[in-house]
Structure prediction request, 154 residues.
Amino acid sequence: MELYLVRHAEPKSKEEDPKRGLTDLGFVNVRKTARFVKRLEISVETIFHSDKLRAKQTANELAVGIKSVAGLKQRDGIAPMDDISSMKDEIQGGDKNLMIVGHLPYMAKLASALLCGNEDQNAVSFQNSCIVKLIRDEGNKGWSLKWMITPDIC
Prediction:
């Protein structure tokens, strides 16, 4: 199983935009990342995103270059401060490739829980518009970090 964890692109400040949509630079960076990963021919069952505008906009931009069977789906329970337990259990019990577009600290906690067994370990330092690919060893159900792509390397 392949799992792609994505931190949303750079959002506007709350004062500038109460819904916190992406900045112009946020759009530029997520589009750079999307163009880069399109060459990798990533295929997932679903691209989940939170109900926050910045995550939805990021997911929409990435979906251009990602093959997704079920497409984009808004998902409850993946907001910045949500408990990771439900999603972690679903991932552990699943066998379909997934992409999750979300926020800090949620994404960092989810990655750390899968990689280290401890959500507070801080195993991955997520930047805006980055994609982290985790792979699961089907034999022992353990996870490892395959790669991380950030806009500055695209």
